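Most newcomers find our protein records easier to grasp once they have seen one. Read left to right, the backbone structure tokens trace the chain's path through space. Once this layout is familiar, the rest of the handout is easier to follow. The record below serves as our worked example for the rest of this section:


***
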Amino acid sequence: MTTLQLQGAPVLVVGAGIMGAGIAQVAAQAGHAVQLFDTREGAAEQAKAKLATTLDGLVAKGKLAPEAAAATLARITPVAALEQAREAALVVEAIVENLEVKRGLLRQLEGVVGERCVLATNTSSISVTALANGLQHPQRLVGMHFFNPVPLMKLVEVVSGLHTDAAVAEAIFELSKAWGKVPVHAKSTPGFIVNRIARPYYAETLALLLEQAAPPQVLDACLKAAGFRMGPCELMDLIGHDTNFAVTNSVYQANFYDKRFVPSLVQRDMVEGGLLGRKSGRGFYRYPEGVPALPVAVHEAPATARTVTVHGSGPVADWLEAASTQALAPQGWGPARAAGSDWTGLEIDGARLALTDGRCAAELSAAWGVAEVAVFDRPVQFPDVAIAPGTALAYAVAPQASAAWQAQAPAWLAALGLAPLPVADAPGLVVARTVAMLINEGADAVLQGVCSPEGADAAMKLGVNYPAGPFEWLQRWSAAGVVAVLQALDAHYRGERYRVSPWLRRQVVAGG
């Protein structure tokens, strides 16, 4: 197609559910004449009436001028038949997530609209290439994946299938910006960007739960301390375990049963038992109570040390030096520094409190020939955000350590200003393994041309409210550090799940 101009053009939205109504609202607020169609009789009219109530509420709160609300509503016209929308320049379908049903609609639309009308699908998981198969003009079909709630969520994934004309994708990209959204280009692959890269956020917690490494509220606390707005357990409860499990299965099957995306036995049992989360009143937590408070831990003061040395270089080591200097100030002395060490952490009278490199405390203890070893999780805020006092952080102590060190390891973490949370001695603990896997998935997405690094970062921050994108985390860490954690996980569990992306391996070779 030649250059397309869709700003101000008439729009048809098919599907008057939550997503369709939201898309109609956004288009109308941007000045488009919008026709709204639904096969269910009266659904389009009901959606418009509900929108009127929503707009009135925004006016009452002072968030929208009365004139703007009235104009938006006036631009939306419910229609009883698709044939009434022959002049549409853009159709956005937001109907049931079913390949054959969507295909049938798209073929029907080709008999109604003009040849230059762009057909956009709001599918969250179905291949745009597959949807285009059999169309007379497959090049005009493009994915326009909004996120719920549409008026509030900024991200739009602009998804190109094998047939999609580049001019069509670019026109939707520019239109999305005109609608106040932040678009990112994506290739039509299972899960697109967000639903693909996000899988490890759920999967790593589910794997830790399967191993009984920690209770749900501890895992949630660790990841919220790393900047995530909701922990994975409470987020799965909010989404609904049936929905989350279905998406995981869809991505798993669509990727030819790649072990990286294998569903969880823990979640399958919850779905089979009807523990669906908020919608059923019980998931990982009971509702309306929600996440229970963590028990208040009381740690003894660290025993007086003869020697304290900060090992390693980089922002975590720098923070450890500053925090331990403050902790030791009442004794009138500070720590030594061994910046050339190949590990990061504190050595206290021969005992070692180490930043996880992916290996279990038991493995490090055996490798070092030191019984008194504990590992602590990666504080991923570094170097941009100073760690706040009382920040929750997972730790594990080597099983061969003495009872005294089992108590002293968390005592030292507490003295540094952290809120240490004990977990089983699992590789990569909680945050390190989760963030490493998110980075790894983002790297594979870029390797396969699904998106750019910038697109991946924008998609994850705007689509699921992550505190940073995978490549922003990578900049704060290092490719070598991420690969070390992944290799430790792979060595521990064996199998394909933790294989390292070739993209990341190339960064290591290049010194990234």
The chain is about 45% helix and 15% strand. The mean pLDDT is 95. Residues 136 and 322 are 67 Å apart (CA to CA). The two ends are 41 Å apart (CA to CA).
